[in-house]
Amino acid sequence: MKKLAAVLLITVSSNIGSGALADDHSKPTNKAAAVLDQTIADGRLNFAVAAVGNAGGQIWSHAAGYQDAEKTNVASPDNIIQIASMTKLVTTIAALKLMEQGKLNLDVPISAYVPELNDLQVLKGFGTDETPIFETAKRAPTARELMTHTAGYVYEIWNANALKGAQLGVTPSLLGEGNYLEAPLAFQPGTAWEYGINTDWLGVLVERLSGQRLANYFDDNIFMPLSMTDTFYELPADKLDRSVTMMARAAEGLVKLPGFQPIPRKRGSMPHYSGGGGLSSTVKDYGRVLQMLLNGGSLDGKTLLKAETVDTMFQNNIGNIQPLALSSVMPILSNTADMSFGNKVAFGLGLLLHTDGIDGGRKANAGSWAGLFNSYYWVDREAGIYGIFGTQVLPFYDGVAIETLLEFEQAVY
Predict the structure, then answer these.
(1) Residue 313: which residues within 8 A CB-CB, separation 6 or more?
(2) Which of 85, 274, 340, 368 is flagged as catalytic?
């Protein structure tokens, strides 16, 4: 991700299974497929994939468009996409497993497990001479605050102070060569909500408390039990032909992005596994995680989480603190993003909660999140279904992707 901004500036098939989305499930699935097909036919996206499932498994999937910018390989539901921050749900589940085992207390400062976080600083702003203004954090954040993005860690993509600190070289950058985990907080823990590298630190906790590298812990405790054979940090060489070209929306339209293209890597070769992003997956594989949540933490006779833990994930864990829209300060990477879609929201453990649902779509207290390259999911326990929509394009919260996602959701319901 070195010199990311500079690099960026250089710049149909379906499977319908058994199950019911409504009294006549053929109508919503046909309409949902038509939504994706039309977006591709209009030339507004190069690739789109979606899936719907229930507690019994995936019941519908569809792909439209092409894997590659040259439009030589037709899209398929089993295409492997980079899911970015959809990784965060997996990391949250991993940490909750350790909580259930008594190894992690969600409500003590994480300095109990990571002593180097005893003396955290909060970046308050800058003086007239651009000198950074710091104050000492009153305490380290808790694991619950990491899971809910109330810990104080932010992303420079959506935080002006963090971006300025990185540009001035006074704080480490997520997009540079330094250790971005050493970035200061943006506010005192537990006092506000802002999206950030919180789940990356949660991943560090998983590694410290399990004694395993994050990728290995995921394999042993989540991916293997859920039979997820197409989810990984390092893309295997023999699966490269199922990967999707990363695109960017530029003034001249959709163009192939110079960076972020899928490349094969040897298993175990990455020096750092981010709890906040980095996984690749398919809609079928990721649907297994969501299916497990719909089943109260168990699937195929294997229990990953207790039912009461899953219940807590879908409960408001931030009180009166309100999740806000992500106001972009790096438009090359993200548009300003309102993940509430204009509706009332709260935050559970690893999930944005749509407390009143969306009119004509997901029901009350459905959980959701997304990935930087415009992949999105929701889990609706009231309706008993999940939905996944994905494409591979920057910037995040692409207008066409959001329009397609919401039309797809309306068609499903």
Answers:
(1) 92, 96, 293, 348, 349, 350, 351, 367
(2) 85
Catalytic residue among 61, 88, 286, 375: 88
Reported as a pLDDT band with limits 50, 70 and 90, residue 178 is confident
Say if residue 255 is exposed, middle or buried (CB neighbours under 10 Å; 0-12, 13-18, 19+): middle
pLDDT band at 26, cuts 50/70/90?
Answer: low
Using DSSP, how many helices (H) and how many strands (E) does the chain show?
Answer: 10, 17
pTM, 2 dp = 0.94
Tell me if residue 284 is catalytic.
no
Q: Are 153 and 143 in contact (CB under 8 A)?
A: no
Nearest by Cα to 339 from 373, 288, 378: 378
SS3 26: helix
Q: What is the pLDDT of residues 308-320, one digit of tens each?
A: 999 999 999 999 9
CATH T-level assignment (fold) for domain 4-98+210-412:
Beta-lactamase (3.40.710)
CA 312 to chain centre: 19
Give 125's strand partners.
Answer: 133
pLDDT tens-digit series, residues 77-113? 999 999 999 999 999 999 999 999 999 999 999 999 9
Residue 6: partners with Cβ closer than 8 Å, 6 or more residues away: none
* Residue found by looking up tokens 């919503």 in the block: 28
Q: Which position among 195, 233, 377, 413 bears the catalytic label?
A: 195
Confirm whether 328 is a catalytic residue.
Answer: no
Residues with Cβ within 8 Å of 149's Cβ and at least 6 positions away in sequence, in order, are 193, 194, 195, 196, 198, 323, 347
Sheet holding 253-256, edge to edge: 253-256, 247-250, 393-394
For 356-370, what is each residue's pLDDT tens digit? 999 999 999 999 999
Domain boundaries, given as residue ranges, for the chain: 4-98+210-412, 105-198
